C-alpha cells in the first residue's frame, strides 16, 4: 500500500491477516493524506476486494463532514429551514452503507433564533438493554448482557434470554459471552440453553465463571447443562464449543460456520427473577441530560427524549429536543456545524433547524373511494377539489393508463419510483386504471386456446381418415397381416446438416464447433450411435450442474462452467448433424409383423428385370391375434392392382 501526503509518498508491505499494523508515512506537516492499495491477493469473484476496517492517524481525529449547498440570496422569505439527515442501519445486515455519526456543515443566510427538532433511533447493545431494564421499573429481575450480537436482525438481543418467550432470540457475534446478574445469592447447579434454531447452531460446552466459583459443563442435545452447584448472584457464561453446523458460502467459495443462537437461558433456581418483556404501549421520557448529545457550532447541548417502549424494542424513531427554552439556539449569519455520535442507547439521525413561520398552507384533501383494486383493471372515484396527485404505492410502469370520466390523465413518477397521475382541478368522477399490455397477454391466451382446439380437431379428422386408401389392394384376402408402406421423409443434406451447422457452431462456440465434422463422420458410418451420444453428453452435463450447485455464477462453474457448456453443445450437435440420405434399403412398413415379399422371375421369356418391385399390402382391418398357431395369410400376387408373376416363376393364383 502507498501512503501519500503533500510531503511525498512511501510504500509499505502489509500482512493480509486482519491484524493492526503500522505503516510508514512521509515525514513533515501535512494537510491531507491519501492511501492507495497497490497490490492485493488474487481476488475471489463476488467479493468486493481488498480493504481496511480502520485507519488511525496519531494525533488526528478524522471526521466525514458534509457541507450543504448554499441557497441563492432571497428577500422577504417567511421562514428558513435546514434539514440534516444521515443514513443509519443499527442492527441491520450490513453497516457498509450506514454513516457513522452525523456531521454536517452549513452557512446560515440570516442570524436569529432557530428551533431545533431531532429524532434518534435505538442502537442495539448493552446500553440499550440496560435502559430497557431501567424503564420497566422492576429491580428484582435477572439482568442479561452480551459481549456481541450478530447483525442479523433488529430484534436480536441478550435481553430476550430471560423473558420466557421462545419466539424471541439472541444470536452471538464473534464473542459468544453472556453476563447475568440477579438480586441475591442463589445456589445454581443447572441451566437450560434453548436453541434458537434457524440460521444458528446450539452450544455443546459452556464455561461458567463467577466471583464464587467456576465450572465447565457439557450441553446435551436438549440444552441441559449440569455442574457442581455455585452459590452466587452473578456469572459469566462463555460458549466454548458449539455444534458443527455450516452452510455453503458462494461468495467465499467455502463453508460458513453458523453462530450460536439461543431463545432462552432458563435457570430453574431463578424462576422468580425472570424478566418478562415490558409493555410495548408504555410511555417513557428521558429527562434532560439523559438523551443523546448534540453539538451545534462546537457547543455540546443536552437533550431529552420521549416515546413508547415499542419504539425502543422495534427500533423506531424517537423524538429528541433540546433542554434549552423552547428547544431553540442562537445562530449568526455564518458557517455552522452540527454533529452527533453513535455512542449510547440512542443515536441522532435527523436534525431540523428552522426560523420563522413554517406552517404549510391549508389544503382541502380530495376524497378517494376505491371500488375495484385487484387485477389489471381498477376503478375508483375521486371527489372535487384542487389539482392533486393520484398515487399508487407500486413501481412506475408505462403500461398503466388512467382515465378520469374517459379523459386520459398525465402519468407521473413520484419519489423516483412510485406510480402516480396528475388529477386536474375541478369536479371529480370515476377514475379507471387499466394495464394495457394485459390485452395482448389475454389475446395470446385466447389465441393459443383456439389453436389448440383446431389442432385437436385436425388430429381427430386425420385419425378418422386413416383407413385404406382408394386403389389399395382391393384383392387382399381378409385377415392379411401386412401393413402399409410409409415413405420416410429425407433428412437435411450435407450442406445444411454439417457445413451450415459447423459455421453456426463457430459463431456461438468458437473452436468447439470442430466437434461437428467428427460427429458427421460418425453419422455416416454409425448413425445409430448419435442418439446415445446426445443422451450421454446431456446427462453428463446435468450431473456436472448438480454436483456444482450453489457455486456463484461468476466462478465459471455449474451451468455456466466450461465443462457443462461443452457437454451440452456436444449433445445439441449430435442431435442436429446429418450427412444426407442414407443408402436405400427399401421402404419402411408401418404394421407389426410385415416383412418384405419378393417375387423373383424364373428363366422364362422376356428380357426384363428379373426382380419384381415390392408391392404394398393393405391392412386387413382385423385385429392381430396373439395366438402363435394362427395361420398367416400370404398376400395376393395377382388382381387388378397387383402384378402377375411371369411364367416359370413358380407363383400361382387361386
Automatic annotation (TrEMBL):
It holds the Pfam family CBM_AftD. Residues 156-267 form the Arabinofuranosyltransferase D third carbohydrate binding module domain. Keywords: Membrane, Transmembrane, Transmembrane helix. Residues 1-14 have a biased composition (Basic and acidic residues). It comes from the Bacteria. Residues 1-26, 465-487, 583-654 are annotated as: Disordered. The chain crosses the membrane at residues 440-461, 494-522, 529-547, 559-582. InterPro entries: CBM_AftD (IPR056997). This is Arabinofuranosyltransferase D third carbohydrate binding module domain-containing protein. It comes from Streptomyces microflavus. The lineage of its organism: Bacteria, Bacillati, Actinomycetota, Actinomycetes, Kitasatosporales.
Amino acid at each position: 500500500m502507498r501512503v501519500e501526503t503533500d510531503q511525498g509518498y512511501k510504500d509499505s508491505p502489509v500482512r493480509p491477516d486482519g491484524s493492526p499494523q503500522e505503516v510508514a508515512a512521509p515525514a513533515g506537516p501535512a494537510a491531507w493524506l491519501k492511501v492507495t492499495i497497490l497490490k492485493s491477493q488474487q481476488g475471489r469473484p463476488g467479493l468486493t476486494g481488498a480493504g481496511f476496517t480502520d485507519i488511525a492517524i496519531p494525533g488526528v481525529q478524522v471526521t466525514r463532514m458534509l457541507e450543504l449547498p448554499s441557497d441563492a440570496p432571497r428577500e422577504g422569505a417567511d421562514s428558513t429551514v435546514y434539514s440534516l439527515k444521515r443514513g443509519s442501519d443499527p442492527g441491520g445486515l450490513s453497516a457498509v452503507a450506514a454513516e457513522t455519526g452525523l456531521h454536517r456543515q452549513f452557512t446560515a443566510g440570516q442570524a436569529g433564533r432557530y428551533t431545533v427538532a431531532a429524532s434518534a433511533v435505538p442502537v442495539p447493545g448493552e446500553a440499550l438493554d440496560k435502559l430497557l431494564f431501567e424503564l420497566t421499573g422492576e429491580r428484582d429481575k435477572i439482568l442479561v448482557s452480551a459481549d456481541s450480537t450478530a447483525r442479523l436482525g433488529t430484534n436480536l438481543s441478550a435481553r430476550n434470554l430471560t423473558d420466557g418467550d421462545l419466539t424471541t432470540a439472541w444470536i452471538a457475534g464473534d464473542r459468544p459471552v453472556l453476563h447475568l446478574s440477579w438480586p441475591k445469592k442463589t445456589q445454581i447447579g443447572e441451566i437450560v440453553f434453548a436453541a434458537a434454531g434457524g440460521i444458528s447452531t446450539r452450544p455443546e460446552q459452556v464455561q461458567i465463571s463467577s466471583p464464587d466459583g467456576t465450572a465447565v459443563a457439557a450441553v446435551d442435545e436438549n440444552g441441559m447443562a449440569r455442574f457442581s452447584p455455585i452459590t452466587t448472584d452473578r456469572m459469566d457464561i462463555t460458549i466454548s464449543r458449539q455444534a458443527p453446523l455450516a452452510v455453503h458460502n458462494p461468495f467465499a467459495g467455502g463453508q460458513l460456520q453458523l453462530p450460536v443462537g439461543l431463545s432462552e437461558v432458563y435457570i430453574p433456581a431463578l424462576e422468580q427473577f425472570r424478566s418478562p418483556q415490558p409493555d410495548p404501549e408504555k410511555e417513557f421520557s428521558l429527562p434532560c441530560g439523559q438523551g443523546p448529545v448534540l453539538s451545534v457550532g462546537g457547543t455540546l447541548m443536552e437533550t431529552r427524549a420521549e416515546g413508547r417502549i415499542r419504539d425502543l424494542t422495534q427500533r423506531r424513531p424517537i423524538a429528541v429536543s433540546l433542554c434549552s427554552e423552547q428547544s431553540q439556539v442562537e445562530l449568526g449569519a455564518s458557517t455552522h456545524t452540527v454533529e452527533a455520535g453513535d455512542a449510547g442507547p440512542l443515536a441522532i439521525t435527523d436534525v431540523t433547524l428552522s426560523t420563522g413561520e413554517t406552517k404549510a398552507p391549508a389544503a382541502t384533501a380530495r376524497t378517494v373511494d376505491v371500488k375495484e383494486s385487484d387485477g389489471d383493471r381498477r376503478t375508483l372515484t375521486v371527489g372535487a377539489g384542487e389539482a392533486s396527485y393520484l398515487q399508487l404505492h407500486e413501481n412506475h410502469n408505462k403500461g398503466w393508463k388512467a382515465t378520469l370520466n374517459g379523459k386520459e390523465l398525465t402519468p407521473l413518477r413520484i419519489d423516483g419510483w412510485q406510480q402516480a397521475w396528475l388529477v386536474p382541478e375541478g369536479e371529480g368522477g370515476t377514475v379507471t386504471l387499466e394495464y394495457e399490455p394485459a390485452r395482448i397477454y389475454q389475446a395470446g391466451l385466447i389465441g393459443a386456446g383456439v389453436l389448440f382446439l383446431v389442432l385437436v380437431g385436425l388430429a381427430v379428422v386425420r385419425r378418422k381418415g386413416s383407413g385404406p386408401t382408394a386403389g389399395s389392394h382391393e384383392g387382399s384376402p381378409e385377415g392379411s397381416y401386412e401393413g402399409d408402406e410409409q415413405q420416410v421423409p429425407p433428412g437435411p443434406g450435407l450442406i445444411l446438416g454439417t457445413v451450415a451447422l459447423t459455421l453456426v457452431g463457430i459463431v456461438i462456440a468458437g473452436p468447439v464447433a470442430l466437434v461437428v465434422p467428427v460427429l458427421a463422420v460418425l453419422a455416416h458410418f454409425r448413425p445409430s450411435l448419435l442418439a446415445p451420444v446426445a443422451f450421454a453428453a446431456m446427462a453428463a452435463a446435468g450431473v456436472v450442474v448438480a454436483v456444482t450447485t450453489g457455486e456463484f455464477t461468476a466462478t465459471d462453474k455449474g451451468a455456466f462452467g466450461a465443462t457443462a457448456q461443452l457437454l451440452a453443445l456436444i449433445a445439441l450437435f449430435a442431435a442436429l448433424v446429418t450427412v444426407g440420405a442414407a443408402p436405400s434399403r427399401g421402404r419402411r412398413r408401418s404394421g407389426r409383423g410385415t416383412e418384405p415379399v419378393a417375387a423373383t422371375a424364373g428363366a422364362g421369356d422376356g428380357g426384363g428385370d428379373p426382380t419384381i418391385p415390392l408391392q404394398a399390402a393393405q391392412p386387413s382391418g382385423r385385429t392381430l391375434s396373439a395366438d402363435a398357431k394362427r395361420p398367416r395369410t400370404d398376400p395376393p400376387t395377382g388382381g387388378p392392382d397387383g402384378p402377375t408373376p411371369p411364367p416359370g416363376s413358380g407363383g400361382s393364383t387361386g
